[in-house]
Structures are given as structure tokens and as C-alpha cells.
Specification:
Helix content: 10-25%
Number of helices: 1
Low-confidence stretches: none
Order of helices and strands: HEEEEEE
Largest sheet: 3 strands, mixed
Radius of gyration: 20 Å
Number of strands: 6
Structural class: alpha+beta
Strand order of the largest sheet: 3-1-6
Strand content: 35-45%
Oligomer: single chain
Shape: elongated
Distance between the termini: 66 Å
Length: about 110
């Protein structure tokens, strides 16, 4: 009985590992700043989240006419909400961005 149970258990555990790995994917978004201001903070959260995640710039800034690639690892959906904050405290919020299809070019027209 034991010899029959072990292969079934191993197969079950392997299928669970592969199915959870298949659900999590890696994405990225390129953000280009064309606001005329330095972007001090960039927050990116899954669309389903009710909170902003940590600032992905950390101690860096995103200067005007510069771009930054942000890697998003281990998410089950490519849909994200993105908020940028410039040096004057103005915010630029983008809801439900499909990062698998779209990058962001942020201009003053996008200010909240």
C-alpha cells in the first residue's frame, strides 16, 4: 500500500508546484517622464489591491526626459495601478494599466 501512495503523493505535489508557478508571471513597465519636473516617487500596485505598494524608485529619482524600466515579478495579472509624484507633490495616477501591452509616457496633461 505504501509503494502505491508515494508516487501519487509525489505527482500531486508536483502538479501543485507547477500550477502555482504557472499562475505567477514576471512583467515590466517602461515609464518615461515628460512632465517637465523630476518624479520623486513611483508606486505600482496590482489593480486588485486597495493600498499602494512601496516606492519602486527608492532613493532614485526620474528626471525629465528620462525613462525607467520597472520589473514586476511574481504577479498573476498584468493589470496594475500606477501613481507618480513629482517634486512639487503633484500626482499622476493611471488606473488599470495592462503592462503586458502598454508602457507609460507621463506628461503634464496626466496630472490628477
Amino acid at each position: 500500500m505504501r509503494s502505491l501512495f508515494m508516487p501519487i503523493l509525489v505527482a500531486l505535489l508536483a502538479s501543485l508546484a507547477f500550477s502555482s508557478a504557472a499562475l505567477a508571471e514576471d512583467y515590466y513597465v517602461d515609464i518615461t517622464n515628460k512632465t517637465g519636473y523630476t518624479i520623486m516617487h513611483v508606486y505600482i500596485s496590482p489593480e486588485s489591491s486597495t493600498e499602494w505598494e512601496e516606492d519602486v524608485l527608492g532613493k532614485e529619482v526620474l528626471r525629465n526626459h528620462k525613462a525607467k524600466r520597472v520589473n514586476l515579478k511574481g504577479y498573476s495579472s498584468p493589470i496594475f495601478d500606477i501613481r507618480l509624484v513629482d517634486e512639487d507633490g503633484d500626482t499622476y495616477t493611471f488606473w488599470k494599466v495592462d503592462v503586458s501591452r502598454d508602457d507609460l509616457v507621463v506628461t503634464l496633461d496626466d496630472v490628477d
